[in-house]
Input
Amino acid sequence: MKFLTFKTTDKNEIRFGFKSSERIIDIGLAAKWLHEKNNDDRFLNIPTSLHKALENWDENFSLLKILESLTTKENLNSFSQKESELIILPPIINPPAFRDFYAFEQHVKAARKLRNLEMHPDWYKIPIFYFSNPNCCYGHGEDISYPNNTTELDFELEFAIIIGNGGSNLKSNEADRVIAGYTILNDWSSRNLQREEMPLSLGPAKGKDFASSFGPYMVTPDELESAWEKDGKLHLRMTCHINGKKVSDGNTNDLYHSFGTMIERASMNTKLMPGEYIGSGTVGTGCILELRPENAGGWLNKGDIVTLEIERLGILENKII
Output
């Protein structure tokens, strides 16, 4: 299933739904409709937000799959709207935490080379991450304000998982029980601010403090089963276009550290909470820093439209203002 968080253009109320063809089923309205039509009250207890539903995800997802099977096409107008008529928000608006890993080897090599550094051998042993700002999440179609004191604005083409149920000290082979779904991530970066920080050995902070885009959907693992190959990796093409021109072309199968190993590392000595984002890091070719501005038409400017697309996960597009 493809879940999303949205608002209608005429109301400010935040809603929770799933995609059915070109329409979005409003889960609250569908539950009410089934109760009134069929005297079926099973779905009235589904939480009104995706974030809350993730707290007891196994039970809620089972109910949601039944709900999906009962919402037939001829009844859609009673509890759905066209996706194009909605304001799409991040799947999780205010996540408890957002950890972003550094797990694509090609990008790490390129970034370190720019700082005249060889690959550190421990990178291959330990999946590393930094904490980003969970209070600056943007959705598909939302404008991104050009950050102050920035001269080198960059995108980062990534994908992320969203945690369901939660857990502590998880092993990599237990990842399936806490991966509720996948989404596209644009980890916007102010490279000149980041360049000030990195020599001080505390990692990126202010350079990535202003915006992260997620969405448009949280795609559940069952939607991606046929994309797993015999090599044990997920094969999904990842691209970025700037103002309609393709600048990045990568694949999720280049991920060196799996999300299982990331979850094991992230949950060690702490608890992963429902609704947390865990990012993959940037795919190879997935940012201007790596491509070099002279090869990508320069750094991002006001008015630029950045479009990330990942097979089966959708399109995440934002405009710089």
The chain has eight helices and 21 strands. The CA atoms of residues 106 and 147 lie 27 Å apart.
